[in-house]
Write a structure and sequence with these properties.
Chain lengths: ~350, ~350, ~350, ~350
Amino acid sequence: MISFESDYTEGAHEKILDALLRTNRESQPGYGSDSYSESAKEKIRRACGTPEAEIHFLVGGTQTNAVVIDTMLQPYEGVVAAKTGHISTHEAGAIEFTGHKVLELDGVHGKIVPERLNDFLEAFHQDGNREHMVYPGMVYISHPTEYGTLYSLEELKQLSDICHSYNIPLYLDGARLGYGLMSSETDVALQDVASCCDVFYIGGTKVGALCGEAVVFPGGNGPMHFMTMVKQHGALLAKGRLTGVQFDTLFTDDLYFKISRHAIEMAGLLKEVLQKAGCRFFMDSPTNQQFIILEDEELERLSKEVRFSFWEKYDDKHTVVRLATSWATKEEDIYRLSELLSDNREK
Amino acid sequence: MISFESDYTEGAHEKILDALLRTNRESQPGYGSDSYSESAKEKIRRACGTPEAEIHFLVGGTQTNAVVIDTMLQPYEGVVAAKTGHISTHEAGAIEFTGHKVLELDGVHGKIVPERLNDFLEAFHQDGNREHMVYPGMVYISHPTEYGTLYSLEELKQLSDICHSYNIPLYLDGARLGYGLMSSETDVALQDVASCCDVFYIGGTKVGALCGEAVVFPGGNGPMHFMTMVKQHGALLAKGRLTGVQFDTLFTDDLYFKISRHAIEMAGLLKEVLQKAGCRFFMDSPTNQQFIILEDEELERLSKEVRFSFWEKYDDKHTVVRLATSWATKEEDIYRLSELLSDNREK
Amino acid sequence: MISFESDYTEGAHEKILDALLRTNRESQPGYGSDSYSESAKEKIRRACGTPEAEIHFLVGGTQTNAVVIDTMLQPYEGVVAAKTGHISTHEAGAIEFTGHKVLELDGVHGKIVPERLNDFLEAFHQDGNREHMVYPGMVYISHPTEYGTLYSLEELKQLSDICHSYNIPLYLDGARLGYGLMSSETDVALQDVASCCDVFYIGGTKVGALCGEAVVFPGGNGPMHFMTMVKQHGALLAKGRLTGVQFDTLFTDDLYFKISRHAIEMAGLLKEVLQKAGCRFFMDSPTNQQFIILEDEELERLSKEVRFSFWEKYDDKHTVVRLATSWATKEEDIYRLSELLSDNREK
Amino acid sequence: MISFESDYTEGAHEKILDALLRTNRESQPGYGSDSYSESAKEKIRRACGTPEAEIHFLVGGTQTNAVVIDTMLQPYEGVVAAKTGHISTHEAGAIEFTGHKVLELDGVHGKIVPERLNDFLEAFHQDGNREHMVYPGMVYISHPTEYGTLYSLEELKQLSDICHSYNIPLYLDGARLGYGLMSSETDVALQDVASCCDVFYIGGTKVGALCGEAVVFPGGNGPMHFMTMVKQHGALLAKGRLTGVQFDTLFTDDLYFKISRHAIEMAGLLKEVLQKAGCRFFMDSPTNQQFIILEDEELERLSKEVRFSFWEKYDDKHTVVRLATSWATKEEDIYRLSELLSDNREK
């Protein structure tokens, strides 16, 4: 059985496990005040080009979205997101659980279109009934999106300008940020993210860590008493060293970028193999997630030897599935898939 | 100045004020255990044809929606509503404030289309990721809708059947229920509402009361400890007699229906007058709210002598406005409007 | 049957009903923007001696506490209250429902002791673990308290100074404020309340209105977008005139104070009658609530002709009950109670 | 520098790191459906003697308390806890954040006294105003408590009986459960915990894991859709293997119990050393946390070479500090402390 099910099916990059082992018996204070968290923050500040950045480590993606959004919004505000955004669909209502509406915009291939965002905000502020409505208090984007697509630098800047003209923060969910930054089709670097966004997170769970996401407030603009609110959300790790050591390792010698590049190279190879096998692509994705349309019988046969994710029904006889590469993907597995696909076609 | 701004710009029907005056000095226990609340409940049970119904009086519409929805949903559930539904747009996020997502469906003229509801529920229950999603735990409709439109009895039954096949309650927001029931274009009676819905409310605020909405659980199926949760939501009136006396009056000698019919007759007259004046209708509404498209200059001129509600921009030069009649509308005001419209056109 | 059960068993003062009747057919805009609300606010500003005050009308006491406390606290903050405070015990957890802890202090006769408050705040700010704790973000007092007792002006000033030295607001729950201000044993006037507190409310429901509480931010210091948050809490009246007209009447010709004085005079008479009948007082109360200890058999006999409130078990054979007077109390009822008490004793 | 600051200052037991390393490159499905989580659950079921138990792994203690309590309570219910309980004081209001009140009881040495619990519940159910109050819907105890004390089996049974006579669950916070079970002064075994409690958790973070707590519903009585609610709370790990592998290791060959016993032995040695040095104990603790009263000057001198936790001020010149042993404590560090203490005394 080979697996392209997701980018979180393996453990952690070996260097991370080594570091956990090496530092294991040191006595370190809890709750994020350990020396590894400090060191990791310093390295991330440098990588972002924002020496003033305030950085916090949380455990997982949904948790991070809920904590960041809830603590940055006023009670009367909601967060604008694409209808297909992770917070809109696949977080079990974690944002609403904290009392805030997700204001859903129709997007294109998972992305918010700057012009539509502007129209939405303009319409809101011209609406005579706006005092009876949820104020748009933040814009949420994911990069890469849930469909693997990427914003161009120009788009990011436009979104940033629109947000700032309405005086609301732009928040970027970077659960797979590494895979976005290392795409061969992007003009967006980590420093660009840091300069366009008011807050974002650098995903660890899907990019080589056991767990962990690094929240970055590039301007040092985190909410007051953030740690207390993190605890209130049940999101404060006693052994903060666990995320500290991991991010310290990821941001040493560019490990985060190197392993992300590997996933992108594997995705390139995967794409080739899929194309060669005549697969129909559901959409074009420049990152580590690839979406293809399979005939249902073919899907069933393949499922016996390959794991991938069900995405959505395409029509009565076809299904969209997702294949993901990651820092851990082995070239040999892609070649094996290639064989299976040709066997499959022959049948 | 004449006003068609809304159906809550006047006080209360005189019979209600009389009743408040007449019963004023009686000593009555608080929190809804007064004899008038009891009597009102009994009369409403009779009018609904549901002798087992459990009934509670709350103060206003948004409050009622928040209390009913929050207390009937499980924490992991959200409520399905039309995108234009009151809870989706104009309740300042009161539903999300209680921790629940409003799952928005595209509607038609403010109504949920049964087939689309069915597709939505079916897709949810077939989705392999549904454990990471908000469960649809209730369906919310308004009748009349926010656009004054009405469900047919056939549609209500379909919605009811769909809900019950998925084992979730159907909830009807009847803020303007009287105006819906007395429309000349409806085949839905109060008893039909009671037999199709698992919970609904009979609006008082917009139909002749100073305040108050009557929540009806036709099958006696209210949540346990409902009163405690009403208090927890800050929605429990100390002097429950205030809503008790009002609903007791509204449901004596069919007052609720008679004053609703008056509004509908006035809406008929208003429609005629608007048509005669050559006004363009934004949509056809069979109830007390009428929507027309005015040229912006005309709108400005008229605004000096008539109050109505801004609805939305139609295009660069036109605006949709709403004119509402109510139990309190005077025939003479409609004739005055007729004059103003012809004056206006002549200019 | 005569009733001393509570101060909300009758309707409203007749002048209020008159005013509702007189203004009934005027067309007035909704949501608190009617002219009566404006006029009432102006009169309250004058009575408080705070021309800059921001004032809002809400419907009931628990609602008001929840809205004020939730909108003024930061998410990481809780509200300090006496263990016997209304928000601590008898609001069904409405404060916690909004996400905030009630930090309970042992009080004396329902009051917070300034020195203990200071110790509590000092200890919190010296606690090395305070980042893992709920920040005290507001102090809540009731005046009169739930036991009918009153703060002296000196005590109010001390509490105010302590709060301000810790930079947190002092909030006074004035559900029965009129009865406190008109007590013969107080040196606290309405202007003192306004100058010592950062926010307070003037209770209507228990002092002659059908419903309604006036929230006063003496320094014009209400939270931004307060109206939107009121709506979010389900607390916004469509017909704001209902509370507007009532408070406009209560603050015309000192009606609020005059009817409160009546209740206090009746309480004085009641106290005399109870003393003469040899009743044992549970505690000394200078306002409209009187607490006596009845032998259980006596209680049972009296209950057949008098309504009062169970307060708590005193011991195996005795019970504490509360008798309340109000704006509506009739002298003859007190004389009737006197007769019943002497009959009772003779048996 | 030697450290007795807490039981979470080191990483993880080496066997856990070995297991993470050994299983690292296996492809495992996410969200707790990996084979290690399954295996760990089976081992825990066996250790508890409850083959039907439902088990879930969460990340940290406050998170676990919030998720368990919120998902098991009805909205109108609160949780009863000792005033000194972790949820009452040191979780930043995480329980109230989910909308529930913590009903605080005065305890003795951190423990709830069964008789007082019974009185509290009885009084609540006899209170005529209980519909306006928060219903006690669960009892929370910690074992060991925040003061290191333990319930006897007899006490546990009494608490269990009281809860069940009122039909509410008993919940045991076992953040340090291992240290309680291995105390030489306890008659409570893991099976007893499982038979007395309706839900409890076995703490990993403080007993040898990097992170992780195992929630046990001994009767298979977990709430429906628990996983969705865990996600809603932001508490669902993508790589569930992280907690799965750790608990699988801890419950292989009694590792959990063996490392807990080590901590208890070290605590015994520590106690001896402290007694020999003439230290005054704040209270007697039979587990891994020891509380002593230090003169402030002595405290300052010691602090230069030993880390411990500030607990509370004892009086003007003395402070209570806590010293904790753990699975990771080294005998040599205790001897070093012994030397420091005698040096200290000589000065």
